[in-house]
Amino acid sequence: MEQALIKTDFPDIGTPKRGKVRDLYDMGDKLLIVATDRISAFDVVLPTGIKDKGKVLTKLSLFWFREMESIIGNHLIETDVEKYPESLKKYGDILKDRSMLVKKARVIPVECVVRGYISGSAWKEYKKSESVCGIKLPKGLLESSKLNEPIFTPTTKAEEGHDMNLTFEELVKTIGNDLAEKLKDLSIRIYTKACEIAEKKGIIVADTKFEFGMVDGEVIIVDEVLTPDSSRFWSIKDYKPGTSQESYDKQIVRDYLNGLDWDKTYPGPELPPHVAEKTRNRYIEILEILTGYGL
Ligand SMILES: Nc1ncnc2c1ncn2[C@@H]1O[C@H](COP(=O)(O)OP(=O)(O)OP(=O)(O)O)[C@@H](O)[C@H]1O
Ligand SMILES: [Mg+2]
């Protein structure tokens, strides 16, 4: 069986900038983004890949970019390998279904998080302060409760380690009032539309994270959109507030890791084959549910 793609190496194209999941190649005025099968948990990239995960992320992002075109432009230029520059065609087998040629953007250095439900780090903060990112929330919320309306809870974009929550005022100090208002408005509109689409397919988008960038003075959406790596997807039929929910994301991996004696610093442990396989199936399942097509 084909192996998971842990990293790419295209020496004649250049040295990639490697994120946790993606390898980025500078193509002059464009970027080549390759989604590998790497998986991170607790901000540590694990040595084991999840076969085809990069394809799932790429297909889902493409689906959502199209769905959101009426709200915002995106960075996509081309995703059909046949239409890539000649220099890339020899890597076609690797690039197919997991890469995009995109506009090089000046990435706005914040993560635009939107939450419709209270979960994860927001739940922890709420328990301490009844607020999240400086937004006061009603008393008596349970873990995974639906919020009255979606909230915008931006964070810093840490080069290494964990992102930090920002209040709206702190965001304004970082990027200015007009841009802060604009990103908040866009993020909530995109999230709201995504919830409508996902709900019809039996899925709750509990929260998600967007990145925006500037190209020719215009704000566009970049990176990945509404994938299991950037979002918490829950099944409507299993939804039950008052506890944490089973997500279509790395929950299987996190649960496995939490059962180990590992301090969540590098190097991360290998995943056993059954954990990798189960995780792979979850990624493929959410792709099929949301888009109606498979790998
Ligand atoms: N159109 C674009 N122009 C420039 N940079 C982009 C564009 N789209 C995505 N990026 C950047 O590419 C990287 C994607 O890689 P990946 O998601 O693997 O990184 P990451 O580990 O999440 O890193 P980071 O903490 O920098 O987001 C991100 O740093 C993202 O900001
Ligand atoms: Mg990322």
Explain the overall architecture:
The strands form four sheets. Strands 8, 9, 12, 13, 14, 15 and 16 form a seven-stranded antiparallel beta sheet that branches. The protein has helices at residues 53-67, 86-89, 92-95, 120-129, 168-175, 177-199, 251-258, 273-291; strands at residues 17-18, 22-27, 30-35, 40-41, 44-45, 76-78, 99-103, 106-107, 110-117, 131-132, 135-136, 146-152, 155-156, 203-215, 218-222, 231-235. It folds into two domains: 17-104, Phosphorylase Kinase, domain 1; 107-251, D-amino Acid Aminotransferase, Chain A, domain 1 (2-Layer Sandwich), CATH 3.30.470.20. The two termini are 16 Å apart. The protein has eight helices and 16 strands. It is globular and about 60 Å long. The chain is α+β, with helices and mostly antiparallel strands and 295 residues long. Helix content is 31%, strand content 24%. Bound molecules: adenosine-5'-triphosphate and magnesium ion. The site of magnesium ion has 2 residues, from loops.
